[in-house]
């Protein structure tokens, strides 16, 4: 089967999200942090849309098993770019002179993101008596958490505080990726619970 035969609507949305993630990194490196964050949010929206469209097509028998597996693999690879690499490029670009400690924090974050995605590829959504949940923070949440935490720092925090945040953020979010915390899908009564 030709590769182009897999380019259905969900996968095109996924690739659009990848372009948003790439745009975020380029904008970061050219000192446009606000636009970079906006591009990252757009990548997160594409990640939500491609899953919704894919499930709808599968429910109506419009995607084969091979197309479904291809889409899931493509989505995970794009997530590495958008929610693993792009946030670290953003944080890198904010620092006047990145230190060795930052590179260690960034490496930890990206490794945790990749591990989280690999775990989800194998296990998917887990389930208990209260319904389905994610084990560890889904990497897509970086598209929301980065703007929410960084914008106040960029607008009002002293430089010393901001540099502290740029080191703590990768460590904290990376740790949540690989934690045993249970994150319920949106709409659940409680979003987070402790792992068993």
Please tag this protein with its features:
Four Helix Bundle (Hemerythrin (Met), subunit A); alpha+beta; single chain; CDP-OH_PTrfase_TM_dom; 4 strands; lipid metabolism; 196 residues
Q: How would you sum up this structure, described in words?
A:
This protein is an alpha+beta fold and 196 residues long. It has 6 helices and 4 strands, in the order ααααββααββ. Strands 1-2-3-4 form a 4-stranded antiparallel β-sheet, with no helix packed on it. The model has no long low-confidence stretch (mean pLDDT 88).
Major β-sheet strand ordering: 1-2-3-4
Helix content: 55-70%
Number of strands: 4
Please name the CATH architecture: Up-down Bundle
Terminal Cα separation, in Å?
A: 43 Å
Largest sheet, strands/sense/barrel: 4 strands, antiparallel
Number of helices: 6
Kindly provide the name of the CATH class.
Mainly Alpha
The H-level CATH homologous superfamily, spelled out, is CDP-alcohol phosphotransferase transmembrane (TM) domain
Strand content: 5-15%
Report the principal-axis shape. Answer: globular
Radius of gyration: 17 Å
- Pattern of helices and strands: HHHHEEHHEE
Give the uncertain stretches in residue-range form. Answer: none
Number of structural domains: 1
Using the coordinates shown, work out and report the CATH topology: Four Helix Bundle (Hemerythrin (Met), subunit A)
Structural class: alpha+beta
For the residues shown, what is the average pLDDT?
A: 88
């Amino acid at each position: 089967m030709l590769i182009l035969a897999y380019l259905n609507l969900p996968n095109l949305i996924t690739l659009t999200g990848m372009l948003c993630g790439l745009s975020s990194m380029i904008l970061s490196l050219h000192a446009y942090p606000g636009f970079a964050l906006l591009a990252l949010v757009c990548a997160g929206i594409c990640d939500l849309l491609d899953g919704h469209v894919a499930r709808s097509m599968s429910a109506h028998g419009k995607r084969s098993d091979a197309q479904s597996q291809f889409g899931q693999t493509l989505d995970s690879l794009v997530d590495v770019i958008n929610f693993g690499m792009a946030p670290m490029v953003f944080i890198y670009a904010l620092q006047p002179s990145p230190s060795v400690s930052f590179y260690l924090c960034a490496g930890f974050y990206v490794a945790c993101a990749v591990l989280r995605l690999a775990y989800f590829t194998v296990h998917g959504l887990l389930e208990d008596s209260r319904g389905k949940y994610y084990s560890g923070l889904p990497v897509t949440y970086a598209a929301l958490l980065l703007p929410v935490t960084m914008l106040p720092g960029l607008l009002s925090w002293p430089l010393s505080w901001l540099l502290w945040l740029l080191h703590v953020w990768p460590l904290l979010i990376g740790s949540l990726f690989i934690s045993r915390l249970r994150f319920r899908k949106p709409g659940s009564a409680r979003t987070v619970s402790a792992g068993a």
